[in-house]
Specification:
Blueprint lengths: L9 H20 L8 H16 L1 H6 L3 H32 L12 H4 L5 H12 L4 H8 L3 H22 L1
Helix pairs in contact: 1-2, 1-4, 2-4, 2-8, 4-6, 7-8
Length: 166
């Protein structure tokens, strides 16, 4: 596999700034000392993706470290918003009674078959029960990045199939 070309100086910035950005994201996500959640890693990696896409802006900035920190803060804020949105949506789905059902069975019964039960359980553990990404990743034998990718795929499938359900 061929190595990707990066702008001149990018690797040096990555090598010198990644730990600082990761530590900053840990603070913003409230990770316990000595731990790194999946969302924290996602935020740090996405920060450097934004840097790669905006290399010229970074280089032209009078304060490049401040620019990178600002990007990280925005990335963390957006990831937190996404998590909050998923928590709200899942709570709504779980507590929504099926129309015409006198027993008030939740729509999870109706969703059965649309999303595998283990995927729905994973979403519930993260967004409703508040389990950390690291805890769930360890239980599943995944890395934090692997869990983040799995969650991305599950959420994409959930969005697609739930829209059809509505």
């Amino acid at each position: 596999m061929e190595e990707q070309e990066y702008p001149e100086g990018f690797k040096e910035v990555f090598d010198t700034q990644y730990k600082r950005i990761l530590d900053y994201a840990k603070i913003l996500f409230g990770d316990a000392p000595g731990t790194v959640s999946g969302r924290t890693e996602d935020a740090a990696q996405e920060t450097f993706l934004v840097l790669l896409c905006n290399w010229e802006k970074f280089c032209a900035s009078p304060n490049p470290e401040g620019w990178l920190t600002f990007v990280c803060r925005n990335v963390c804020r957006n990831l937190k918003r996404e998590d909050q949105k998923w928590t709200r949506n899942l709570r709504w789905v779980v507590h929504q009674p099926v129309q015409g059902d006198p027993n008030g069975i939740s729509t999870l019964v109706e969703l059965e078959g649309l999303i595998p039960p283990e995927d729905m359980r994973l979403l519930e553990r993260i967004y409703l029960e508040g389990c950390s990404h690291k805890e769930v990743a360890d239980e599943l034998g995944l890395t934090a990045s692997g869990l983040s990718m799995k969650l991305s795929r599950i959420k994409a499938a959930f969005k697609k199939k739930y829209k059809e359900f509505l």
